[in-house]
UniProtKB/TrEMBL annotation:
Organism: Zavarzinia aquatilis
Protein name: Aspartate aminotransferase family protein
Record field: transmembrane: none
Signal peptide span: none
Cofactors that this protein relies on: pyridoxal 5'-phosphate
GO molecular function: pyridoxal phosphate binding; transaminase activity
Family: Belongs to the class-III pyridoxal-phosphate-dependent aminotransferase family.
Keywords: Aminotransferase, Pyridoxal phosphate, Transferase
């Protein structure tokens, strides 16, 4: 996944100054980093749904869910600046900011999730959730999907197969097929349940006690699978019956993006044992956390000392609180629903015009558009997708691809994306598809 739509080092951009900057980046940051696009983008400013390069050219951001309420939202910037001018320190002191935010965030979820433990990144949040799950259940087995991404710590890399085959899978990790309603046959929930039951049976054969089923509730790295609502319920019930927990990774689908409420797990009629949040929570500021049932974390809290030096610091809590306020004040959950429906309708019109579009799926402002060279055979259009993504970049539209064949457009713009922005995107996409 990390190589999808990546710049190939040494290919050059045709601009000596840009090539020198890319080489400087390589020299200083090392070889492990990746850049988007065949022609990397040098951004210097952002505002709302737009990013701007060093020459002042505007790019419509149709991909960046991290800036959930838009790049440099003035309410968020003001909250950050105000609190940074007063105090920023670690979480070993009493401070009302973290308590105020915890009350507001927990009020947006089901009452069963009664505690919030804060971290700096989504990776830390998922790592903490796994520690809690293993302590509570006494198990070690973790079930994830075949192309999942859950973080970059050592533990999480071992259960994030989207990082590539060079990252070894952990011995207590089992992969299950994604709930693909386009390529799979039969009932989506039944097929997903069968995969989970097979993983649980293998745990039993190997003497491994299950700890958790961990899923991104929109299955974004696997290819964006949202429907039918409720298909997750039977698999979650099977894991719980076997003694494991359900951890909902809400880093990508959470905070109203799906347009049906604040959380992706709610579309399935579920209350998780833990839900992890990050990235969009702070509009790009490093703040994240775990919402958990009190009974799940009780034993962990009794026996293990937990602290995160800057997880939940006053500035981070002020920023996260501002993001939550903007989502509510600007009606961004409803906007995700309405603009997402407008965008999906436009994509369906393009699908009737361009045979390259094989399937459209998603919810709200999280849509996957799967491209194929043959609709009957569902042949992945991997090369065409890469060409399309790079063509759109040159036209001033930023997007990327996902899925096992890198042939699915991953459409997840900031929540302030409006119908007029969707129309700009659809116009450019129409032209780019026609060119291919």
């Amino acid at each position: 996944m990390t190589m999808i739509n990546a710049y190939v080092p040494g290919t050059g951009t045709g601009d000596a100054a840009e090539d020198a900057l890319i080489e400087r980046r390589r020299r200083l940051l090392g070889p492990a980093y990746r850049l988007f696009y065949a022609h990397p983008l040098h951004v210097v400013r952002g505002q709302g749904v737009w990013l701007y390069d060093q020459a002042g050219k505007a790019y419509l951001d149709v991909y960046n869910n991290v800036a959930s309420v838009g790049h440099c939202h003035p309410v968020v910037v003001e909250a950050l600046s105000r609190q940074a001018a007063i105090l920023n320190t670690h979480t070993r002191y009493v401070h009302e900011g973290i308590l105020d935010y915890a009350e507001k965030l927990l009020a947006e979820g089901p009452p069963e999730l009664g505690h919030l433990m804060m971290t700096c990144t989504g990776s830390e949040a998922n790592d903490l959730a796994l520690r809690i799950a293993r302590k509570h259940t006494g198990g070690t087995g973790i079930i994830v999907t075949e192309l999942a991404y859950h973080g970059v710590t050592g533990v999480l890399a071992e259960l994030s197969p989207s990082l590539g085959p060079a990252v070894a899978r952990g011995p207590h990790v089992r992969l299950v097929p994604a709930p693909d309603g386009y390529r799979g046959e039969g009932d989506v929930g039944a097929r997903f349940l069968a995969g989970v039951e097979a993983a649980l049976a293998d745990f039993a054969d190997k003497g491994i006690r299950p700890a958790a089923l961990l899923v991104d509730t929109i299955f974004s790295s696997d290819g964006v699978f949202a429907d039918p609502p409720g298909f997750l319920a039977s698999a979650v019930a099977a894991v719980r019956a076997a003694g494991g927990l359900f951890i909902a990774d809400e880093v990508q689908p959470g905070f109203g993006r799906l347009g049906t409420g604040m959380w992706g797990f709610a579309r399935h009629g579920l209350v998780p044992d833990m839900a992890t949040v990050g990235k969009p929570m702070g509009n790009g500021h490093p703040v994240a956390g775990v919402m958990t049932r009190p009974e799940v974390v009780a034993e962990f809290g009794r026996d293990i000392r937990y602290f995160n030096t800057f997880g939940g610091n006053p500035v981070s809590c002020a920023v996260a609180g501002a993001v939550l306020s903007v989502i509510k004040a600007e009606g961004l959950v409803e906007n995700a629903r309405a603009t997402g429906a407008h965008l999906m309708a436009g994509l369906r019109r393009l699908g009737r015009k361009h045979d390259l579009i094989g399937d459209l799926r998603g919810s709200g402002l999280f849509i996957g558009a799967e491209l194929v060279t043959d609709r009957a055979r569902k042949t992945p259009a991997s090369a065409e997708t890469a060409r399309l993504v790079n063509d759109l970049r040159e036209r001033g539209v930023l997007i990327s691809a996902t899925g096992p064949f890198a042939n699915i457009l991953k459409i997840r713009p900031p929540l302030v994306f409006r119908p007029e922005h969707a129309d700009i995107f659809l116009g450019h996409l129409d032209e780019a598809l026609a060119a291919i």
